[in-house]
Amino acid sequence: MSAIVKFMKDEDGVVAIEYVIIAAALVGVLAAVFSGMGTTLTTKLQAIVNGITT
Question: How far apart are CA 12 and CA 19, in angstroms?
Fold first, then answer.
């Protein structure tokens, strides 16, 4: 019984889960930002390539 109480009071895993949630949110935000920039970046790079080849 004391092992169950000790397990319930243990908060070490909670911190790890919080870091995973924060990292997942950060990845989601970065993916949204870079997917929106993808077409703009592609257009600008294509303009540079066209300027070099002509």
Answer: 12
**Is residue 24, in this structure, part of any structural domain at all?**
yes
Number of domains in the chain: 1
Tens of pLDDT, residues 2-48? 887 887 777 666 777 888 888 899 998 888 887 777 778 788 888 98
Alpha carbon of residue 46 to chain centroid: 27
Range 45-53 contact pairs with CB under 8 angstroms and sequence separation of 24 or more: none
Q: In which domain, by residue range, is 28 found?
A: 11-53
Cα angle 11-15-21, degrees, rounded to a multiple of 5: 135
Residue 1 lies in a domain: no
